[in-house]
Amino acid sequence: MLYFKAMYIESVPNRNSPPATLLRESYRDENGKVKKRTLANLSSCSAEQIAAFKTILKGGHASALPLDEQFEIQRSLPHGHVAAILGTFRRLKLHNLLERKSSDERSLAMALIAGRILYPGSKLALSRHLNPNTATSTLGQELGLKEVNEHDLYGAMRWLFDRQDKIQNRIAKCHLSEGSAVLYDLSSTYYEGSTCALAKRGHNRDGKKGKRQINFGLLTTAQGCPIAVEVFPGNTPDPNTVSSQLKTLRQRFGLKKIVIVGDRGMITSARIDALCDDSELGDFGWISALRSDQIRKLADGKHFQPELFDQRDLAEITAEDEFPGERLVVCRNPTLAGERKRKRDELLAETENKLQEIASACSRSRAPYHGKDKIARRLEREASKYKMLKHFDLEITETSLSFSRKEESIAAEAALDGFYIIRAGRVTANEFDANSLVETYKSLSGVERAFRAIKTTSLHVRPIFHHEEDMVRAHIFVCMLAYYLRWHLEQQLKPLLFNDEEPGGGPRKSPVAKAQRSKRGNRKAATKQTDDGLSAHSFATLLQDLGTLSRHEIRAAIPGGAVFHKLTDPTAIQARAFEVLGVKPSPLPHM
Fold first, then answer.
1. Residues 577, 493: contact at Cβ < 8 Å?
2. Cα(136)–Cα(473) distance, rounded to whole angstroms?
3. CB neighbourhood size of 97 (10 A)
4. Contact residues for 219 (Cβ-Cβ < 8 A; gap 6+)
């Protein structure tokens, strides 16, 4: 049995070096002999600290202050959301995709990408978030950044833009393989100013009348993971960008077999003919859909009979005279049919009300509305916006307006309610069966979600203020990389989010049927809790929650007290989030 006596501090000569200051303990062994052993080397401590330790060992207090005042929190910075984002950044090896060698430019580029998720805003605002004196989180600390200004960040943007092709090639190698489907769509964002050559007036998608805009096309996997982005002038039509994307897939990414998926306005018959004549594009296939007038033409030509789809919702047909060499999958969704009927009935009623208002204005006794041209202009101004005038017989005179519904026209349109037709070319049944063609086309919603996140809900790409063309392209590329990181974060964090964890949602009898949440997803939505009994979150609120985990810089309130760092204890939801991400927040800042 060992009998301990006491701890004490001893100064020990150290040859030609300064004496070593050791914390020691003396004790008696089982034979009663007094021995001592070293517990710690305190040589690095200051004289004030040594004196404080001696006072404590003698039973005194190192400080005369009350216990709750013996430590000073010099600074506290939000850290949990930074740890989650940078931990995922490194787990994905995204920093190596930017550049394999560590550099100041790479650290600044990482700050741009992570900062787009945390603080979407200007470069000046981001520089303030990063600088030690004005930091609002540990992002600058974790990336080893010191003083950063907006010019440093603009330089990092140029550095990223110069490597865009190389970075996108590396991402493509991680996610694309021969013959896989690649989703493509085009969107736009409005531009403040008039100096950039890319800013043009075109098809406005943002509801900003009178604004110039920039177009950008996004390539994603079938699951919606972004692969590449390209910027086009704001007046570029959607179909004109397809060949550029196919060349990116073929020449830059080295894919021999390409299946590109785009909506009916993107991959048109005229565009397909032009692409097939381009020898540089190699072997490619396409999956798209027909326009309503094309569907009407096929129905009138008896290529399919709408009445037969009362018992089925999907059938594959061919129409060699209209679409030679293409596979056509006719689909009918009863839910969609009901929604279209409801919407058409509402629009017909609104149009009829407007027509009646104008007709009443023409026949009133006081100040009647007269003039054939005047009546026609008002008709165009007030009633044409509902796009239902095609279903009305109109008779306009100098003093009156009369109208009636074209019931046959309405019935003919209603007969095709709920119908859509998927078209595919150079895609065999062994590669994609009819069900797979429908599922793949409907997966275009993944690109729409990406655009929604990039433009509005999280990354706020718009409006664009950059003057130079290269900087505009770099800004869009930074947002794409930020969405790439966010997409992976969301995939990992699904157990804690309201997102349905089962791919594709609940089981369906047919891919034509509307997607439904799984039982597990419905339970999460109803109870607002995860399977672990924790509060379910959206991605944004979970990131805010993680941000409440802080890193504290603490100093002991004694003469010469050293500074140390400590994290707040994680809550249950924070601990679970770090567990599923495979991230362990460090209490120590990057050195």
1. yes
2. 28
3. 19
4. 182, 183, 184, 226, 227, 228, 229, 245, 248, 249
Dist CA 129 CA 111 (whole Å)? 10
SS3 4: strand
Q: Which helix (H) or strand (E) holds 190?
A: strand 181-191
- Please say whether the beta carbons of 221 and 503 come within 8 A: no
- Number of residues assigned to the chain: 591
**What is the model's pLDDT at position 540?**
94
How many Cβ atoms sit within 10 Å of the Cβ of residue 486?
Answer: 23
Residue 249: both structure tokens together = 């897939």
Among 572, 532, 582, 533, which Cα is nearest to 549's?
Answer: 572
Q: Which alpha helices (DSSP H) does 528-571 contain, by range?
A: 539-546
Q: Do 110 and 78 contact (CB within 8 A), yes or no? A: no
Distance of alpha carbon 209 from its chain centroid, rounded? 26
Alpha-carbon distance 154 to 472, whole Å?
11
DSSP state of 538: -
The band of 63, judged by pLDDT with boundaries at 50, 70 and 90, is: low
- pLDDT, averaged across the chain: 90
High-pLDDT (> 90) share of the chain, % = 66
Q: What is the pLDDT of residues 103-120, one digit of tens each?
A: 999 999 999 999 999 999
Q: Residue 559: which pLDDT band, with cuts at 50, 70 and 90?
A: low
Give the model confidence (pLDDT) of 256-278 as tens digits: 888 999 999 999 999 999 888 88
Return the pLDDT at 345. Answer: 96
User: What secondary structure does DSSP assign to 304-368, as a single string?
Assistant: S-GGGGGS-SEEEE--TTTSTTEEEEEEE-HHHHHHHHHHHHHHHHHHHHHHHHHHHHHH-SSS-
3-class secondary-structure state, position 434 = helix
The predicted-structure confidence for 477-491, as pLDDT tens digits, reads as follows 999 999 999 999 999
- Go through 445-464 and write b for each residue having 16 or more CB atoms within 10 A of its CB, e for each that does not: ebbebbbebbbeebbbbbeb
Separation of alpha carbons 562 and 554, rounded Å: 8
What's the pLDDT score for residue 279?
Answer: 81
First to last CA, the chain: 45
Q: Is the pTM value of this prediction over 0.90?
A: no
Other Cβ atoms within 10 Å of 74 Cβ, number: 10
DSSP-derived 3-state class of residue 564: strand
6 secondary structure, DSSP code: E
Give the residue carrying structure tokens 């379910």. Answer: 536
Q: CA-CA distance, 344 to 414, in Å (whole number)?
A: 9
Return the closest-CA partner of residue 86 out of 584, 565, 591. 584
8 Å CB contact between 500 and 521: yes
- Indicate the angle between helix axes 80-91 and 539-546, nearest 10 degrees: 110
Q: Minimal CA–CA distance to 182: which of 289, 262, 268?
A: 262
Which of 284, 285, 276, 297 shows the shortest CA–CA distance to 327? 285
Question: What are the angstrom distances between the C-alpha of 195 and each of 131, 161, 206, 482, 568?
Answer: 31, 20, 20, 26, 49
User: Phi/psi of residue 508, each to 5°?
Assistant: -130, 150
pLDDT for 41: 85
Which pLDDT value is given to residue 62?
Answer: 61
